[in-house]
Design brief:
The protein has nine helices and five strands. It is an alpha+beta fold. The strands form two sheets. It has a three-stranded antiparallel beta sheet, with helices on one face. A two-stranded antiparallel sheet has the order 4-5. The longest helix is centred in the N-terminal third of the chain and has 15 residues.
């Protein structure tokens, strides 16, 4: 939860960074500014959206260039159950509830760790919500797309790690409508309706595929290039 204490710490870090003094927090402040694409920052500070592990655009371009291009694999044998989720994260919380708290503002939980109130902003379509039932946790790279691009060769433990990844930019709270519209489609087949989100979306997709050594199609690479080109220069 965002508190006045966090606000004082952030302000102090900003002063230190402005003075040119080396600090681990300086990198975090830079990341928060760079991620901005018109969406509000998680935890209530306006101006940027925080997605863990999101690379700068230059790094994303390098990662995209390094992705192997390959035709989609067969969907034979695929099921969502092959990617166990949502995993327990401690204190009765699973991955979904953890992401809801991370991405929301003023989130209140019940004794079972379920979000009973809060505010969530959907990056994909720019809409805001006050009920957890109105939002979904999206896998940036959908499970079925991952299967078609290399996860069909993984064991269950790696697929479980992929489906519950809180370290890389793979999980995001979005409107249920936009998540279901996206389905398992790749960027050449579906793009977030809010074009201001394309920079973040493209960087996240490339980062996840690079992290897990997943492949892309030629059409997918071309669209991701356009998405990265939408980033502020």
């Amino acid at each position: 939860m965002w508190t006045h204490r966090h606000g004082r710490v952030a302000a102090l870090v900003a002063v230190v960074c402005a003075a040119g003094i080396a600090s681990a927090g300086c990198g975090e402040q830079k990341d928060r500014r760079e991620v901005g694409a018109g969406a509000p920052e998680a935890k209530g500070s306006p101006g940027a959206f925080v997605l863990p592990g999101l690379p700068p655009v230059g790094q994303a371009r390098t990662q995209l260039a390094g992705l192997k291009e390959e035709a989609p694999h067969s969907m034979s044998g695929y099921s969502r159950a092959a990617f166990p989720h949502w995993a327990q994260q401690g204190s009765r919380c699973d991955t979904r509830e953890t992401v809801l708290e991370r991405d929301g503002q003023k989130v209140q939980r019940d004794a079972e760790c379920r979000a009973v109130s809060g505010n969530w902003h959907s990056l994909y379509d720019g809409k805001s919500f006050t009920k957890a039932g109105q939002v979904d946790i999206d896998h940036i790279v959908p499970l079925a797309n991952a299967w078609r691009s290399g996860a069909d060769k993984w064991d269950n433990e790696r697929r479980k790690a992929f489906a519950n990844d809180l370290t890389h930019p793979q999980l995001l709270t979005v409107s249920a409508a936009s998540n279901r519209s996206k389905g398992d489609q790749s960027p050449d087949q579906w793009q977030p309706p809010d074009r201001a989100s394309w920079c973040v979306y493209g960087r996240a997709w490339v980062s996840v595929k690079s992290t897990y050594a997943l492949t892309v199609t030629a059409a997918e690479r071309n669209t991701l290039t356009k998405m990265l080109d939408s980033c502020p220069r």
